[in-house]
Amino acid sequence: MEKMKAALLGLGTVGSGVYKLVQKRSDEMVHLIGTELEISKILVHNIKKERPGVDSALLTDNWKEIIEDPEIQIVIEVMGGIEPARTMILEALNAGKNVVTANKDLLAVHGKELLDTAEKNERDLLFEAAVAGGIPIIRPMKQCLAANDITEAIGIVNGTTNYILTKMFEEDMSFEEALAQATELGYAEADPTADVEGLDAGRKMAIMASIAFHSRVVFDDVYTEGITKITAQDVAYAKEFHSVIKLLGVAHNTEDGIEVAVHPMLIDVDHPLASVRDSFNAVFVHGDAVDDAMFYGRGAGEFPTASAVMGDVIDVARNLKYGCTGRISCTCYRDLKIKSFEDVKNRFFLRMQVANEPGVLAQIAKVFGDHKVSIARVVQKKVEASGAELVIGTEKVKERHLKSALDVLKQMDSIHEVSSIIREY
């Protein structure tokens, strides 16, 4: 029986998982796709490095051995980064090969170019693993929910930050303590900036919003804010307000344009996303026909991500078997505007240190009123001779109106500090 051959670009955590999964399922591939599947080449930086369990004869550091091999029909890119991944994927598609990638960084910036090239060559470019690891979300939105007008996609799409916030809530850890534990367990990289500052989640939300709303969203369109400023005091107030704090990716398709952002949010404990703990991810979507649906599972890791990659590989192999590659290409057929984040409306949790004097609250209320900010609640607990701590909850207000109000408040002698600004779902 004819074999279907694939090449693997990269043999790190995800690449190793893909290779192991292919070997583990080798006997079943004939039944799943109608033929055998073989990894015939693996592109690595250093072919002399010891890689237990991997046939060294498969290793190469020469891209030409892959791109010029007519028997290789599927290229699996799990190297990450922009270059050389972008160039290799474009060359593979132009050479008539199909591509599966897990590269969120690349797709969030150059997705249109890659998908247009795939469509031109009538080849598959699949990328389920680029968003939420092992959780199926791209294919469900492109296929299972294709009859829906999706107006909302929100999610916890970064396991590192979710783990940190879980430990802060459940074990009263500080941010620094929780980050150290996440690093020790391998959830956080040595440089955790992309995770804790919301950049990783922002790239995923650019891809997910593009799919959900059928209109191109790139990483630069996404407002990003991380969790480094979340404190034990914020956690305590969230608990008092029957809420938890999660780093949420939030995308809405509104009459005024697409809203897309990543930032911490207080979310009611009764919302399904509030129960997503540790390194798990979840995506919540709203469609006009399906109503609400939530996808939950492992958002990263060797085998969860490899599971998503291999789901795409099997899909491509089936399409090759029946001669129908390229049947679902770019679905961004709309050209919707991206709303400026300054015009997005949110509710806010504000914690500030103020002078313990009569009339301070009235001064704050006046400034807010002058800038179209409506107050929903005020809590004052900590009172000392040196000052008092006020917690103010607002109604929905445009981001720019709240910012202009806070700019004025920060100049007032009676306002010692604005300690926290967190949005509420």
Q: Which helices and strands appear, and what pairs or packs with what?
A:
Layout: E1 3-9, H1 13-24, H2 26-33, E2 36-43, E3 59-60, H3 64-67, E4 72-77, H4 85-94, E5 98-101, H5 104-120, E6 125-126, H6 138-144, E7 150-156, H7 159-170, H8 175-184, H9 193-196, H10 199-213, E8 223-224, H11 232-240, E9 243-254, E10 257-268, E11 280-287, E12 291-298, H12 302-321, E13 345-354, H13 360-370, E14 375-384, E15 387-394, E16 397-398, H14 399-409, E17 415-424
Parallel strand pairs: 1-2, 1-4, 2-3, 4-5, 5-6, 8-10, 10-17
Antiparallel strand pairs: 7-9, 7-11, 9-10, 11-12, 13-15, 13-16, 13-17, 14-15
Helix pairs in contact: 1-12, 4-5, 5-10, 7-8, 13-14
Name its key features.
single chain, alpha/beta, Dihydrodipicolinate Reductase, domain 2, Alpha-Beta Plaits, six-stranded parallel beta sheet, 425 residues, 3 domains
How would you describe this structure to a colleague?
This protein is α/β, with parallel strands linked by helices. The chain has three domains: 3-133 and 302-321, 3-Layer(aba) Sandwich (Rossmann fold), CATH 3.40.50.720; 138-298, Dihydrodipicolinate Reductase, domain 2; 341-424, Alpha-Beta Plaits, CATH 3.30.70.260. It is 35% helix and 28% strand. The chain is built from 14 helices and 17 strands. It has helices spanning 13-24, 26-33, 64-67, 85-94, 104-120, 138-144, 159-170, 175-184, 193-196, 199-213, 232-240, 302-321, 360-370, 399-409; strands at 3-9, 36-43, 59-60, 72-77, 98-101, 125-126, 150-156, 223-224, 243-254, 257-268, 280-287, 291-298, 345-354, 375-384, 387-394, 397-398, 415-424. The strands form two sheets. Strands 7, 8, 9, 10, 11, 12, 13, 14, 15, 16 and 17 form an eleven-stranded mixed sheet that branches. The protein has a six-stranded parallel sheet with strand order 3-2-1-4-5-6, sandwiched between helices. The longest helix is centred in the C-terminal third of the chain and has 20 residues, at 302-321. It is elongated, with a radius of gyration of 24 Å. The protein starts with a strand and ends with a strand.
